[in-house]
């Protein structure tokens, strides 16, 4: 089994680790492994909130892109009066 010696631990931190071990009914070694392991784990990707994909879709255009779209569909907004007679 591998061992690591940690020197220079702040007395307050040591006291807190000992307290945590006692409260949890675990050895100091186990608590230290959990603390070190928890901080060394890679971050898990956060789940996107509901509706995030819709927000990306609806709000994904730049102002220039939105302007270009509006200009390209403007022809469909025109009413041909002759067709409705």
Helices and strands, in order, run as HHHH
Give the structural class: mainly alpha
Q: How much of the polypeptide forms β-strand, as a percent range?
A: under 5%
Tally of helical segments: 4
Catalogue the unreliable spans. none
**Secondary structure: number of strands:** 0
Average pLDDT works out at 82
Q: What distance separates the N and C termini?
A: 92 Å
User: Which value, in Å, is the CA radius of gyration?
Assistant: 31 Å
What summary fits the major beta sheet?
Answer: none
Classify the helix fraction into a percent range: 40-55%
Q: What is the approximate shape?
A: rod-shaped
Gist of the model:
0% of the residues are buried. The mean pLDDT is 82.
Can you tell me about this structure?
It contains 4 helices and no strands. The chain has 85 residues and is mainly alpha-helical. Among the domains are: 11-40; 52-79, no CATH class. The mean pLDDT is 82.
Tell me the layout of helices and strands.
Blueprint: H1 11-24, H2 28-40, H3 52-58, H4 63-73
Helix pairs in contact: 1-2
From the structure above, extract its key features.
mainly alpha
């Amino acid at each position: 089994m591998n061992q690591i010696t940690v020197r220079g631990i702040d007395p307050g931190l040591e006291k807190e680790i000992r307290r945590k071990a006692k409260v949890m009914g675990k050895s100091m070694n186990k608590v230290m492994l959990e603390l070190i392991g928890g901080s060394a784990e890679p971050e898990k990707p956060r789940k996107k909130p509901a509706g995030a994909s819709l927000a990306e879709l609806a709000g994904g255009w730049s102002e220039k892109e939105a302007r270009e779209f509006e200009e390209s569909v403007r022809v469909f907004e025109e009413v041909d009066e002759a067709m409705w007679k």
